Amino acid sequence: MRALLIPAAVLGLAGLAGLAACQSSPDAPRDPGVCYSVQTPDAGEKGQTQFHVVATDQPQIEFCAARLEEMRLRFLRMGGNKREIVGAYQGQFIFIEKRGVFFSKDLDGVRFFALARTGDGRLAIPGAIQRDIDTAMAAPAG
Questions:
Q1: Which residue intervals of 25-119 are DSSP H helices?
Q2: Which pLDDT does position 25 carry in this prediction?
Q3: Cβ of 93: how many Cβ atoms within 10 Å?
Q4: CA distances in angstroms from 60 to 78, 81, 90, listed in the order given
Q5: Please, what's the b/e burial string for 94-129 (b: 16 or more CB within 10 A of its CB; e: otherwise)?
Q6: Residue ranges in the chain assigned as alpha helix (H)
Q7: 100 forms bridges with which residues in the sheet?
Q8: Which of 44, 92, 95, 101 is the most buried (most CB within 10 A)?
Q9: Which residues contact 30 (CB under 8 A, 6 or more apart)?
Q10: How many CB atoms lie within 10 A of CB 33?
Q11: pTM of the model
């Protein structure tokens, strides 16, 4: 009987440790038209995720992504070194990365590709880039 209690106790503690490790990620604010920059604590640091207002009256998530990209470029010009930025807009997270812009419902969830970087670093709708290439190739030389 005593031998059965020890494994059950070990399993119970392992389950509690698993629940503690499985902390839910914060929800993005849902304020209409407000664009946020998201500051997460670094690995190993304690603290909460912070949301800072970047812009208000933004009609769409793409406009918020543009404001975040402006902020990223401004910080780089001032000597910053952070090349990736996380933002939030009306319940969704925005990830500005080297390859482009991604959206997600969760901070740690699946990311969906939204905007691509062009050859000169600007952001564009992925289909628009291919249309420009197709148009240039179809145009007669001359």
A1: 61-77
A2: 83
A3: 23
A4: 28, 28, 9
A5: bbbeeebbbbbeebeeebeebbbbeeeeebeeeeee
A6: 2-21, 61-77, 126-138
A7: 116
A8: 101
A9: 90, 91
A10: 14
A11: 0.72
Provide long-range contacts, Cβ within 8 A and 24+ apart, for 84-87: 85/37, 86/37, 86/38, 86/40, 87/35, 87/36, 87/37, 87/38, 87/54
Token pair recorded at residue 65: 């992504």
Helix, strand, coil fractions of the chain, as percent rounded to 5: 35, 25, 40
Mean pLDDT in consecutive groups of 10 residues from the start of the chain, 142 residues: 49 46 79 96 84 97 96 95 95 96 96 91 75 57 56
For 62, the token pair is: 């793409």
Please name which of 28, 94, 97 lies closest in space to residue 62, comparing C-alpha atoms: 94
Q: Which two tokens stand for residue 19?
A: 């629940």
| Residues 96, 68: Cα–Cα separation, whole Å | 8
- Amino acid code (one letter) for 132: D
Tokens at residue 61, please?
A: 């998530």
